[in-house]
Amino acid sequence: GTNNTLTGIRDAINASNSGVTASIVNDGGSTPYRMVLTSNTTGAKSSMRVSVDSNGAGDPSTIAGLLAYDPAGTKAMKQNIEALDAKLTINGIDVSSPTNSVQGAAPGLTLNLLSKGDSTVTAVTDTGTMAAAVQSFVTAYNTLQSTAAKLSAFDKNNKGTQSPLLGDATLRTIQNQLRSVFNTPQTGTSDARLVNLTQIGISFKADGSMGLDTAKLNKALATNRTGVAQLFSGADGKSGYGNQLTEIVKSFSATRGALTTATEGLNTNLKELDSAYTRTSAGIDATMSRYRAHVPAV
């Protein structure tokens, strides 16, 4: 049925999903309960117009008379906050925004408007973050190399101790592919002058680890930040050391990839060894039982 109470009207408005939220407030007066309509969006286009499909417009004793609101006409309800766009001027250009968070007006920046007034915004290139990312890349590679060296080492001074992956073909393949990638100049960058790691200060030492000349890296970032980024990410989505390393990881970890195949092979060997141990143990137990049967009780 129809519920023309303030609560019923509020609930009907909220259930209509009409872009506004209705709420009831108590102002502490003699007739304390008031309904407040708030637009769910901001900006001039969110200006509200309330019409009631009923007779009695203009008559405060009717629903239509109480709720009708048209910014350009009947205003039975009181407007507390006008729907407006944010207005600002950037370098002499007038800009408007439906919210106080302005995006796109200044390339790469989001301006959060807090109050009326003049502000000076200075944008500088942040090379520190990129330098830290390159350092992390070098550190990660060196950790990989160090781990591989330990797992494939042969210690002739310790009774010829062999590490678990000494002579492992899969490990050699991974290392060879990584070296091949890093020794291949990149062709998918927008700047042909920046195509290899040595140009940004990364070099290879005699032990296979990477070294980083931070001064050379910082100079490259200061003069060609985009080129440095594309050296890792590429300009075509395919080239770049980062993309190529991702493809190597995918190929090795795929269903029939080298790592997956090697892991499955090791697991198979472990199962076979376990079965052989079980058979051998059972044979020993059977032999001992026969011996015991032939030993006279003392």
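(ticket continues) Second input and output from the same batch:
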Amino acid sequence: APANFQSLKSRSKSDWELLVAVTHGVLFSPMHGWRGRLTDEQIKDVLAYIRLMAPFDAVS
């Protein structure tokens, strides 16, 4: 199943953890790495998109 970017587990990952997952893939999962398939700029765009998928916390 695809990652749920709205889950607490996904939202709590650091930018570095997401960068490593997108670039190199996730061991023992169907998520393969995108290094060599996407440029560094495209990978940064993917990370920005993942962050947009997470709900915003309400600020009082």
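Agent notes: The radius of gyration is 12 Å. The CA atoms of residues 23 and 36 lie 9 Å apart. Closing as not reproducible unless the customer responds.
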